[in-house]
Amino acid sequence: xxxxxxxPLGEDDWEDYRSVRLAALRESPEAFVASVDxxxxxxxxxxxQRMQRSARLVAERDGRAVGVVSxxxxxESDGTxxxxxxxxxxxxxxxxGVATHLVKDGASLAAERGHSHLVYWVGTENGxxxxxxxxxxxxxxxxxxxxxxxxxxxxxEEIAMVLPLGAxxxxxxxL
Length: 175
Ligand SMILES: CC(C)(COP(=O)(O)OP(=O)(O)OC[C@H]1O[C@@H](n2cnc3c(N)ncnc32)[C@H](O)[C@@H]1OP(=O)(O)O)[C@@H](O)C(=O)NCCC(=O)NCCS
Hints:
Distance between the termini: 40 Å
Bound molecules: coenzyme A
CATH architecture: 3-Layer(aba) Sandwich
Low-confidence stretches: 170-174
Order of helices and strands: EHHHEEEHEHEE
Strand order of the largest sheet: 1-2-3-4-5-7-6
CATH class: Alpha Beta
Mean pLDDT: 92
Number of helices: 5
Largest sheet: 7 strands, mixed
CATH topology: Aminopeptidase
Helix content: 25-40%
Number of strands: 7
Number of domains: 1
Shape: globular
């Protein structure tokens, strides 16, 4: 199988990001809070702003996008925590190391930006994503929040999983 490369996208790559992001929302609606209908309606200005808000990394194999992840600052934190979100791998590329490449590069980027740890909110019922994150060294925490995909009443929750970056893991998680 050919090599996977991970490319950080700049603002002018917004169409590449839009394309893989919409593919993710279309293929895995249950995994994300946003919907494809909502995001398809966004204009170029919105996508350009989005590119600046967080880093967007796309994984490619033979020039084709096979996965994506975003890395930003955790909104609930005092800036020390980076946040990994929007992780998706094309179904035919799963189980082949794409997600590992994306998360490793995302974690390096967060460390370079001075974050001491990386938070990843994942649906408690998303067994594959939880298993993947655990395998990458993310640890479960006590933090939970409603998923909000179908409705508040459906009771689905996300759990915050945390990956320490570098030597100073800190005594406690501050979100
Ligand atoms: C989550 C995701 C990015 C992981 O990528 P992946 O290529 O599937 O990951 P891998 O196959 O390398 O690893 C998944 C782990 O789950 C295990 N697994 C596979 N199928 C599983 C299943 N149905 N339930 C639970 N665990 C499963 C694998 O054995 C592997 O564990 P291991 O590393 O200990 O062997 C990918 O599945 C995906 O894009 N899912 C849809 C979108 C999504 O849910 N994104 C996360 C939103 S928070």
